[in-house]
């Protein structure tokens, strides 16, 4: 038998209170975190009706941040991930945003560029391009599974100019596709994290050198991405604590890079900062508080939260909202489950990145 509901207690959760993040007005603070699901299997990397069903099922989120979408063919670094650079992709996403809006939701598109963490198999045989010709020594997911990265080509100034333009065009496409805004994916091991990283960015021009040079590309792109929108409709997602291989280290120097970056974002039109914290369960609120003090705008925190820890993060003032990836994959009605204090379903990692409808749109809602 189900546990007895104590409705007033369950409903009186900080997570369920409305909030404004920049120009986004959220009825609750339960954000769907971006999650690549690799279901755009056609040659054109077009989102399908299955994507519309998937996001529609999750329209109860205070805000949906979609899976990362490629800003151009040059940005690709993972198999079957949709893009936002062709008219077919814009039309495919339009069906997604129409469904989410018809169901009362809000949805922003995450803009992604893999940079050097790609593979010639994904780029028509061409080597990936990155800040410098240094192998990030990561893995890229190709049609034949994970493959070791290679030494990339160093981006020249024309490549960088084109990348800024690609992000601007992708952001305008997102607006035409009916999104409420966009989020710049500056996390993990991808393009911006590569430029920020002195082990991978050995440039001596204005996009390298010291900290200010290494963060320059991201700040230029935030402005380019904001241009097609009238207000604060652009979020930025970073992961200062990311630690992988021997290139990405969450050491004191990296944290100092991010301290300065987050402070610098205050001078740009950013709707919210979306912070992925360390891989700790339960999450350590102190590691988020470091950025709370530095960033003047709204903060979404992520990584390993559940209902109780997320409510604590909002209640303590550490965050304005909390995002959930794995819980939203497996619980399309996550907000309802939080509100009614229902148990959560576990997801199946075997279908995270493959499986068509299976493990994608067939998770049950709570009875
Ligand atoms: C299957 C899967 C795909 C993901 N894809 C993305 C992505 O496209 N962009 C992104 O910023 N983070 C991505 N992430 C990271 C999540 O947004 C999130 O940071 C991580 O899962 C920790 O949050 P959680 O504990 O709520 O799952 C992905 C995570 C998972 C599990």
TrEMBL record:
The NADH:flavin oxidoreductase/NADH oxidase N-terminal domain extends over 19-342
- GO CC annotation: cytosol
GO terms (molecular function) for this protein are:
FMN binding; oxidoreductase activity
Protein name per Swiss-Prot or TrEMBL? Alkene reductase
The protein's matches in Pfam families, at most eight in alphabetical order, are given as: Oxidored_FMN
Q: Which organism is it from?
A: Streptomyces scabichelini
In the UniProt record, the signal sequence range is none
């Amino acid at each position: 038998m189900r546990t007895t509901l104590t409705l007033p207690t369950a409903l009186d959760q900080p997570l369920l209170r409305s909030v404004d993040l920049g120009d986004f007005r959220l009825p609750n603070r339960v954000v769907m975190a971006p999650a690549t699901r690799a279901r755009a299997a056609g040659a054109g990397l077009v989102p399908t009706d299955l994507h519309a069903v998937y996001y529609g099922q999750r329209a109860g989120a205070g805000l949906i941040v979609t899976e990362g979408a490629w800003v151009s063919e040059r940005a690709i670094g993972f198999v079957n991930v949709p893009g936002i650079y062709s008219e077919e992709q814009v039309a495919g996403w339009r069906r997604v945003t129409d469904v989410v809006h018809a169901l009362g939701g809000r949805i922003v598109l995450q803009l992604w560029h893999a940079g050097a963490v790609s593979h010639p198999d994904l780029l028509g045989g061409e080597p990936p391009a990155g800040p410098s010709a240094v192998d990030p020594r990561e893995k890229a997911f190709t049609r034949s599974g994970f493959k070791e990265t290679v030494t990339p080509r160093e981006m020249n100034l024309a490549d960088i100019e084109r990348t800024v333009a690609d992000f601007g065009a992708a952001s305008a496409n997102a607006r035409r596709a009916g999104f409420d805004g966009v989020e710049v994916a500056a996390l993990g091991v991808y393009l911006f994290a590569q430029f920020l990283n002195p082990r991978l960015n050995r440039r001596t021009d204005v996009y390298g050198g010291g900290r200010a040079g290494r963060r320059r590309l991201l700040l230029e792109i935030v402005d380019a991405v904001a241009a097609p929108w009238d207000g604060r409709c652009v979020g930025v997602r970073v992961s200062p604590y990311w630690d992988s291989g021997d290139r990405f280290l969450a050491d004191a120097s990296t944290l100092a890079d991010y301290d300065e970056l987050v402070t610098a974002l205050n001078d740009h039109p950013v709707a919210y900062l979306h912070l992925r914290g360390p891989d700790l369960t339960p999450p350590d609120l102190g590691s988020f508080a470091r950025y709370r003090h530095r960033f003047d705008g709204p903060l979404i925190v992520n990584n390993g939260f559940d209902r109780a820890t997320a409510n604590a993060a909002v209640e303590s003032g550490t965050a304005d909202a909390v995002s959930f990836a794995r819980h939203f994959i497996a619980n399309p009605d996550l907000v309802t489950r939080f509100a009614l204090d229902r148990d959560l379903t576990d997801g199946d990692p075997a279908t995270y990145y493959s499986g068509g409808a299976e493990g994608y749109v067939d998770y049950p809602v709570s009875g």
